[in-house]
Amino acid sequence: MPRYIELTDFSAPELDVYARMTQVQLLNRFEPEKALFVAESPLVIQRALDAGYEPVSFLVDLPNLAKKALEVLAPFDDIPVFVAETEILTQLTGFHLTRGMLCAMRRKPLPTVEQVCGGARRIALLENVMNPTNVGAIFRSAAALGMDAVLLTSGCSDPLYRRSARVSMGTVFQVPWTFLPKDCPDSGIGLLRSMGFRSAAMALTDNSISIKDPRLAAEEKLAIVLGTEGDGLAVSTIADCDYTVRIPMAHGVDSLNVAAASAVAFWQMGNL
Q1: Considering 55, 65, 101, 177, which has the largest number of Cβ atoms within 10 A of its Cβ?
Q2: Strands 122-126 and 177-179
């Protein structure tokens, strides 16, 4: 039976993670063993639990809990479950709880690039994709469309941001991923080449080849490289890649949002 604790003191330090801590504070770079993130919705929380993440506490809108949320809570009789009415929780957190549930969880140490890419045939490399919604959507496409792993440059939004994880439908806990080292040159293209990967930059240039080019599907190991919203990939990154690839467009449209482009690229060049 979960240990429900009704909220009476909003200044309680146990609620800081939900109401007052910034993302920088949650990351706690000075003491990474204490770093946290907040997962939202029963589906996302369950996928995090299945991936081995440790819950610290739950915050729930008890009157509006779905059956699935109660199933998530059932195994935990030693984890505090803070409860309050919907209006109070919205004031406390600043947003309406999706399906009535949040969970503060401990982060795990990030794997190395070698660990993430070992045995992989198709990976996505994100360069400075800063919008958490786009990162989450890219992960969902990566999971659905055959990507073995995702690598991110240090300028990318954190996949464990609440919005990223929620938009991904929890697939950030299913697809192996890690950040490239901050001092990694050429957005990691050289490192991937040393591991046997060829690279395909998604970019609009005069020498771009069609995404349908049979050479792409024939590559044994391929990294699909996607750039930041608006500006796209850095010129130097495009130059470092083995291919520059474009998606054919109609009606005078020149490009797609990076999340939409990722879905097309993963479908055409992924493992499916």
Answers
A1: 101
A2: unpaired
